[in-house]
Amino acid sequence: MSWAVGFDPKWKRDIGYGVPAECDHPDCHKIIDRGLAHVCGGEPKGGDKGCGLYFCSEHLSAGDQLCERCVSPDEDGQVVPFEPKPDVQAWIDHKATDPSWEKWRKDHQ
Description:
The chain has helices spanning 68-71, 89-97, 102-107, and strands at residues 6-8, 13-22, 31-34.
């Protein structure tokens, strides 16, 4: 099984190390991928501890691979995740034109 491309139903977007993306921190525009190295929680869809959004190394804690919101929940212990950023244009263009996505395009008109 490959982690290159998958889909996250919670955030309704493509994930995997083959998916280029912008860091989900609102003040950051670094280009990363949506692979396990960048996911808050360190596991697919965030595992048990993370929100499942994707961040550059500057915006993930080194030890437990959590974003600042998951590291410091609010006073009620709730995590209010950042808003996920939309797909980058390079990924949108790839899905719209690459032959490997032809069947997907037909199924999702």
